[in-house]
Specification:
The protein has 257 residues and is of the alpha/beta class. Helices cover 28% and strands 21% of the residues.
Length: 257
């Protein structure tokens, strides 16, 4: 079901994680089609973690594999752990295995974060790559067509963790951070950059996330880093499975399926 939280937010609740993954793949495919028709290209920034992996696998299968114009698609990452590609903790490595090696996307259109240099250099290099790709003017943040995010049980999103200085970044698009589980050096996109996206989708599944989801959608106070994802001109979607949505209040128009 789909319900409105307020004008700029939508909540989609699917019966289980598998149906949520299918809906995520549909959103990806639809955004790709619209972007190519409107602007001639499609740019997406994806996240790691366990939640989006089923969606990623679906993108490498029919009908999504054939429905997406991969030769006009560019894939970037919202955040990355500073580990080699073959490390199980690598977001790029997981996505490569799950779908990128199984779809006809040109290698030059896959843009992993540089994870095997110093975090400071990696953040700078990735920002330069993004600026070059978008050919953005000085002082402007580029606009991704689609950004997928997750949420941790501590309310973090991307690698924007509670209490860290990266939460206050206003100028840089990509910043080095350290934290999370596992506690590693990482690269992450900043709030101003993420919030410039045309469509931002939180994918959240599992009973253990239900309390965070309830707080994000129903608490008027900003308690978590994820509260600060507020698109300037884009659309924000919460894509949930029933378990993650289980504590939401029915009277708000999005409880139940």
């Amino acid at each position: 079901m789909i319900g409105k939280v307020k004008k700029e937010k939508s909540v989609i609740i699917e019966v289980n994680a598998a149906q949520m993954a299918k809906k995520g793949a549909e959103i990806f495919s639809q955004a790709a089609k619209k972007s190519v028709e409107t602007r001639g290209r499609f740019s997406a920034a994806i996240s790691g973690g366990s939640t989006p992996r089923d969606m990623h696998r679906m993108l490498g299968e029919e009908p999504f594999r054939s429905n997406i114009t991969w030769d006009k698609t560019d894939i970037f990452w919202v955040d990355e752990r500073c580990v080699p590609e073959n490390d199980p903790a690598s977001n790029y490595g997981a996505a490569k295995k799950d779908f990128l090696d199984r779809v006809p996307i040109p290698e030059a259109q896959v843009h992993p974060m540089p994870s095997e240099v110093s975090p400071e250099k990696g953040a700078f290099n990735y920002q330069q790559e993004i600026l070059t790709f978008f050919n953005t003017g000085a002082g402007e943040f580029p606009v991704f067509d689609l950004i997928f995010l997750g949420v941790g049980t501590d309310g973090h999103t991307a690698s924007l963790f509670p209490g860290q200085g990266s939460l206050d970044e206003k100028v840089r698009m990509v910043v080095p951070v350290k934290g999370g589980h596992p506690d590693l050096s990482r690269l992450t996109m900043s709030y101003p950059f993420i919030n410039n996206g045309r469509q931002i989708v939180f994918m959240i599944s599992g009973k253990e996330k239900a309390g965070v989801v309830k707080t994000l959608l129903e608490d008027k106070q900003r308690r978590f880093p994820a509260h600060y994802i507020e698109p300037l001109n884009g659309q924000l979607i919460f894509l949930l499975d029933r378990a993650a949505a289980s504590l939401l209040s029915g009277e708000n128009g999005y409880g139940g399926c």
